[in-house]
Design a protein that fits this description.
The protein has about 150 residues and is α+β, with helices and mostly antiparallel strands. It is built from 1 helix and 11 strands, in the order αβββββββββββ. Bound molecules: copper (II) ion. The site of copper (II) ion has 4 residues, from strand 8.
Length: about 150
């Protein structure tokens, strides 16, 4: 009887973990993660992504990491007194039931010190971490360089 209980307990635990993972991946959907291809000597790259919050709560992105870069920051391109610059944001809020698209000229991810030169067949995996502890791995694609103006 004890043995049966133990098996039942592990089964429940297993089911529970799977349910938690499924809920996490549904409450926020992260897609179209792409990196603008840069010359092999570039020390900083730019990435864009779409974040869709399906949940009933505000989701706050507070860090993005990838082992191929020394650090990743959330930036926004701004124009102040006709001068283009960027400001750093420590986090990015995605309101309930809404979608935020990071795109050239607006919010973007700044990727510092690539450890290898990336080309179009590379598929690095990024981890998006939220204030509530949710962590979502997302595979990036590298796009041929078109836009130098980020
Ligand atoms: Cu930037």
């Amino acid at each position: 009887m004890k043995k049966v209980n133990a098996i039942f307990f592990f089964l429940l635990l297993f089911l529970n973990i799977n349910i938690v993972l499924a809920e996490n991946s549904q409450k926020i959907h992260i897609y179209d993660l792409w990196i603008n291809e840069a010359p092999p000597t570039a020390t900083v790259l730019v990435a864009y992504v779409v974040l869709k919050n399906n949940s009933k709560r505000l989701m706050t992105l507070n860090s993005v990491s990838c082992p191929l870069f020394s650090s990743i920051e959330i930036h926004r391109s701004i124009i102040k007194n006709d001068i283009a610059s960027m400001e750093r944001h420590s986090m990015l809020e995605i309101p309930s039931k809404s979608t935020i698209k990071l795109s050239p000229g607006d919010f973007h991810l700044m990727l510092f010190n690539p450890k290898i030169p990336l080309n179009t067949h590379d598929t690095p995996i990024f981890t998006f971490s939220f204030l509530d502890g949710t962590q979502i791995p997302v595979t990036a694609t590298i796009r041929k360089r078109k836009d130098m103006t980020h």
